Amino acid sequence: MTDTLPDQTSVFSALDGSSDPLAVTRLTLIRHGETAWNQGGRIQGHMDIPLNARGQEQAERMAVALDGSDMVTIYSSDLSRAWQTAQALHNQIGAPLLADQGLRERCFGVLQGQTLAEMFAKNPHLATAFQTRDPHYQPPEGESMVVFRKRVLETVYRLAQRHCGQHIAVVAHGGVLDMLYRDAVGLDLQTQRSWVIDNTSVHRLLWTSQGLQLLAWGDVTHLDGMSTVEVKQGSVASEDVMKKHYL
Q1: Which of 34, 60, 105, 143 is catalytic?
Q2: pTM for this one?
C-alpha cells in the first residue's frame, strides 16, 4: 500500500497568502539534547522526558554556536527535552520562545517507554509491526507515519508562512526533523533513513511557496571535544531504533 498525503500545493493552499512566489523563510532546525531514554534505547514519543546532564551540556554548546544569529523567534515542541534545549538558545540569543504542540514527536501510544527487546518480550506481534515501514501502521493509541507527517508539515508550513522574509528556529525531535528532510528532498516514507539526526544537531532549510529546500544538514561541530557515551552491553541504542525501526 502506498502512503497518501495532500501534496505540497494542497497543504500550502490551506494557508492564506502562501502562494506568493517571493515568500521566503529561513529555517534553522535543531534536535533536542540527549535524555536518559535516548541512552537506554527507550521509545519516547509523547512521554515527557527531560534532558540528562549530557543533553544540557549539548544544548548549551549549541546555543553558544548559534550566538549572533538573526533568528526572530524560536519555536519549540512543548515536551521538556525540546523545551529545555530551546530555552538554552533563548537565553543565549534573546529571541522570543514559543511552544507549539504540532512539533511534538510521533505518538507511539502503548509502545512508549519500552525498548525494542521489551516490546518483543511483551507483544511480538506489535514489535514486528513496529519495525515495518508501513506508513499506515498505527500503534494502539498512537499515530501512523502518514498522520504524523501531515501534522508536522502543516505545523512548519504555518510557522514559516507567519515569518516570510525572516529567520526562525524550530527545536523539535528526530522524527519531526526526519519528516522535514524527506519533504525537502522528495523522499517517501518507505525509504530507509541514511541521514543522521544527532542530539542538538543543526540543520538549515529554506521555505518558499514551492515547498522546503535543503541548504545544509547535520552540523554538530559544537559537540567537538565532548566525550562519547558507552552504550551498555545488551541495550538498544535509541539511534538504531529510530533509523532502523520506525523512521
Answers
A1: 105
A2: 0.88
